[in-house]
Amino acid sequence: MSLARIVAPVLALLLAACPSSTPSAPSGTPDSGVSTDSGVPSDGGIPDDGGTPDAGDESVDSGVPGDAGTPEDGGTSSDGGVSNDAGSSGDGGVPGDGGMSNDAGSSSDGGVSNDGGVSNDAGSSSDGGVSNDGGSPSDGGTSTDAGVPDGGGVPTLTVSTQGLGDGRVGEPYAMTLTAAGGRAPFTWSFTGTLAAGLTLSANGALSGTPTAAGSTLFTAIVRDADGQTAYARLIVRVQPPLSLFTVGHWNLEWFGAPNQGPVNSTSDGGVPDDLQVAGARDVILDAGAHVWGLVEMVDTADFNTLIAGLPGSYSGFLANNTTYVLSGTSQYSAGEQKPGILYDRSLTYRSAQVILTAQAADFGGRPPLRVDFTTRIHGEDAPLVVIVTHMKAFEDRTSYDQRQRSAVALKNYLDQWLPEARVLVIGDWNDDLDHSISKESGVALPSPYLNFLDDPTHYTFLTRELTDANARTTTEYDDVIDHTLVTDEVAVLAVPGGVQVLRPDTSIPDYARTVSDHYPVLTRYDLSGVPGPRVRLTAPLSGTFVVGSPLTVTWRSLGVDTVRIEATYDSGDTWKVVAASVRADAGTFTWTVPDVESDLVRVRVVDTANASRFDMSPGRIWFTRTEPRVLINELLANEPALPGGTAHEFVELYNAGAVPVDLSGWSLWDALAQRHVFAPGTVLAPGRPLVVFGGPEGFAPGTPDTVAASTGTLGLNNTSDVVRLMRTDGGSVDSVEYFSTVDAVSINRSPDLTPDARFVLHNTLTPGLRSSPGRRADGGAF
Predict the structure, then answer these.
(1) Nearest Cα to 135, choosing from 52, 26, 68, 63?
(2) How many CB atoms lie within 10 A of CB 430?
(3) Mean pLDDT, to the nearest integer, of 700-712?
């Protein structure tokens, strides 16, 4: 016998007895849903195979596709050996097969019959694993298919939450993680670090009160009833606590006047105007503004009572107080409406004067009050000028012309005497900015303040966003007539989204008849940082944007020539240049949303002369290929007979899309007027509801996903009405029209939560249940 015929079988036995030096491949997920096989077609072993390594064999035969073996079986076609089995006649040694007699194993193949393992394959019959596949029958997972089709199993479990809303230090935070597929119930956990102060419960509720600013990244893990798990990396951004300079202005209707103003300003048996004074005090205390411009102030004694009811940090005076105002009494008498100022210790009074007295008639006999302060701006004491104005009232053409002439006189004054000063002009302007309240032949005249609007380089009406949002600043009219005008030196300090109309009528009974027919208006400013040029991003601050749609970036700047627009899709790890150089005074750049799916988008505007001088979007921005879908799902117009009355009216929204939607600035309307404006930072997560009630009496305090209408009412008719959900640009998102109601029974989409589905009475959809605000139509939780 030749040496080769002796060595070959011995070598084959040694190889069969020794464990392979190649590590076993881990068992993968059962199948991920590919029908019939979990790896490379026709096999089920290790790499190029996809199942358990060779079904438990010692790396004997798991190499080339088509045979589930390693190279120990010879190589390529059909059998793990070179063609004709790498041997000569007889098939048991080097020629023929490299094994023992006839085949180095069982007949015809260097293993068990036909395939170096179990018959036909290196595992169980026919496929390197359990029968027919490297796993359970027909598929490398559980029965038929460990995923979807190939047997109709449970859909693959995934984390459907794509992003989380931003939090703020010291403010309660609540978001709920959601999953798709799998089999309920779900159990949630996480790895990594949650934002300080937040916890994640087993049911997916992420909640708490953040205690530190910053961004934290964690991995959310969900496990279903069958033991499937899914993962998603999520980020929570926590904004620092608000520490801003706040300016308020308020027309306190005929404040303290004995025979004019709110008809119920005095309580039964109380001192004159005690209810008006108390209401004004409570609003000012809650608002926390550093300075207030007040108009229609009549009685000095009542004003002093107001100040006495505030913390000792507040001081103030009216325009006829000669201790502060030069020649004040010559312009204003004790019984006249007059402007006044109220300020805290963050400001230091320097001087005051009544200005534009030559144009007093055009101001309706109420020339403006100018007050000069110093305050800390960018770390140093700096001058700040506040001008309190009260323009001529009424809609007639004569009054319109007076407002227009007053505006010309005021701008000339500012251009001449305060061309580079930080100036705020606040008060009752008695007209709007998109068009005038005055009409000719039924057509609205242009705003009388076009001279300021046409000079955006030097002047900005911060309250223009209220006009654009169709807000209102009085109890009777739909227009915004109370405004804040600032010079460019102040505009760059204004906090985007920091303009607010307060609604005391939601908390003060009979507000319009006890306190005022106007609402207070607040604006906010960031005076931190260092002196010098600066840039402030004003849009986008947050939101959801569809790939391919236009996205307009806007900003304000001071002392900057050109800016660079940049964006990140990974929360700041890498930045891409959107526009290399844009004139800073342009203030706007329109960009097409790129084909990127991300909930970690941020945008920034950078001074090209100094890369450390930039401003970045504070909120979360989503880019998505899927059109967001928010719908009106349920509404109750005919409220039940409960205390609070129409406060129990409600409109329920639902996010039927796959991405969160930023509702900031969106609004709800009925057929007549705007009824609610969603607050900045309002983000509706996928699969979640948000309910707007007519008033706070309509729901228990702390009810999740629930707010009260910002106007204090929804005003829905019981007979017929239309409810519209509107974007900030005026576009309609969804609308519902109804023509009859049933007492205390809502209407709901059927099927529930289904876009474009018809509306039916709730008790026909779910017998015995008259409504389900914030819950599914069957009463179950979201």
Answers:
(1) 52
(2) 25
(3) 90
